Amino acid sequence: MRSIVVAYGANRGIGYQGRLPWRLPSDMRRFRELTIGGTVLMGRKTYESLPERFRPLPQRRNIVISANPAFAAAGAEVCYSVEAGLAACGEDCFVIGGGTIYEQTLAACERVYATIVHESPLSDTYFPQLPPEEWHLSEREGDIWENGTRFHFATYDRIR
Q1: pLDDT tens across 132-152, in order?
Q2: Nearest C-alpha neighbor of 115 from the set 20, 51, 37
Q3: Domains and CATH numbers, the chain
Q4: Please, which residues have CB within 8 angstroms of residue 145's CB and are 6 or more apart in sequence?
Q5: Are 126 and 106 in contact (CB under 8 A)?
Q6: CA separation (Å) from 67 to 15, 39, 119, 123, 152?
Q7: First vs last C-alpha separation in the chain
Q8: How many Å apart are CA 156 and CA 78, to the nearest integer?
């Protein structure tokens, strides 16, 4: 199943100047648990925003999308279009960002694992709306407080 893994704020913000706007260890732990052993698909900017010691993400097949044919990512596969990236992943992968990649892959995904932060951080990158006629909330966990930030985990499934 193709899935998206994302953390976004009440304003749908996911990042600012190439960085996450929060530090949430529970979210990072959930991300790791969901994606370990799988394939992750990301854009070049997301790949480059990962701390160097985590590039490529360990214990996962990493596919990076870049329009630049000269771009290379040691330890990861590079595809030069979203279509090529999705084809390389097959039917089982986790799309992990960024904003443009989420927009371009949403129609090809069946599930969204979301961490929803109950604040609106300064952002320059956003997660697209999930149209209610196409997606339904299938699971919601209770609120969590970490580092002064309130958030919850939610899973959305595509309506068939």
Answers
A1: 999 999 999 999 999 999 999
A2: 20
A3: 2-158 (3.40.430.10)
A4: none
A5: no
A6: 21, 20, 33, 24, 34
A7: 14
A8: 28
